[in-house]
Amino acid sequence: MTLVPPGATIGILGGGQLGRMTALAARSMGYRIHVLDPDAQCSASPVADRVVAAPFDDADAARELARHCQVVTLEIEQIATAVLDAAAEFAPARPGSALIGMVQDRALQKEWLARNGFPLGPWRHVGSAADIEAAVTALGPCIVKTTRGGYDGRGQVRVNAPAEAADAWTALGKRPCVAERTLSLAAELSVMVARRPSGELAIYPPALNHHERLALSWSVMPAPLPSRLLDQARDIGRGIAEAAALEGLIGVELFLTSDGTLLVNELAPRPHNSYHASERACVTGQFEQLTRAVCDLPLGDVAIVRPAAIVNIFGDLWREGRDPDFPRALGDPAVRLHLYGKPGPRPARKMGHFSAVGDTPLDALERVRAAAALAGAVTEDVPASVRALLA
Hints:
This protein is an alpha+beta fold. Helices cover 31% and strands 26% of the residues. The protein has helices at 17-28, 59-67, 81-87, 97-104, 106-115, 129-139, 165-171, 227-243, 278-281, 286-294, 326-329, 361-375, 384-390; strands at residues 9-13, 32-37, 50-53, 71-74, 123-126, 142-146, 156-159, 177-181, 185-195, 201-203, 207-212, 215-221, 248-257, 262-268, 308-314, 335-339, 350-357. α1 packs across α10, α2 runs parallel beside α3 (81-87) and α3 packs antiparallel against α4.
């Protein structure tokens, strides 16, 4: 039996902000929440019934968690596959270790995507400075990323010329990497797919995203792109979820190149930062949807109720020990504040986000960016090419 009815206990591997928001959604549906995280005071701890404080590679701790749960899911893909398998001895692990193991290694992920016919930009697997030099010579300027780990710009280096290969290899810790050709982009977007064990799928409208300092700065949905591209993005997301036999959620990050081609960037088999706006924009937000999917409940409607946008809040906002001016930012009644309960703000650390709704995607984005500015956040101007899409 795959159904896990309300009133049961859900285990979450990872207690960061995504675990916290998943727990809040699941609790509203009557579920109890147990969390495994290295930090007993993690973001999810105030809203969890129990926290098992243990590293993400502790299989015995995962068994202890799962013994008391009817299903186990995750909020971060850097969970050892042995931990997922250990949890699965006592409760279904959704998604399972096969999908997570593929996603954890960028080279394996790209090979899987290519083997299953999904569009990718030119890339090479590199294992030395000489390999990086050869890749840049063949492909042109590249982004070189470690195959494992790294997020929000960590574990990657831009290499513009072969002569920079040795320094890049050293900076990346002399670990296996992938070299991806630097692309001319018109936009970045994402699509979120939910799939339950019984096979039902729900595909969210794509979101349009903007990165600064290699981390997501803002996102807006629905993405104001031609229907041809939106349909193609949904088809890619559906195909990936079906090919991977997904149980849960998967966020598919996509590049739209200047010549109008959609390419897969990376996969995230969990809730995704770019879909925080779904909590405001859609009938069913991503965190309730994850709960429904892993518990094999009927999936919720993903239709847009009203356009919405988010702006991420980083630790930089607490400059020189001063608190951000959140009351001023909330002067617009369409704006909400979402803080993650993290102590010790530091530069580049995600501490929360603002969200806003609007009459159009551009209206929602302008309102949320204005609120962030009132709180003291500094974001780049919306690129003219992106503004043209939003207009």
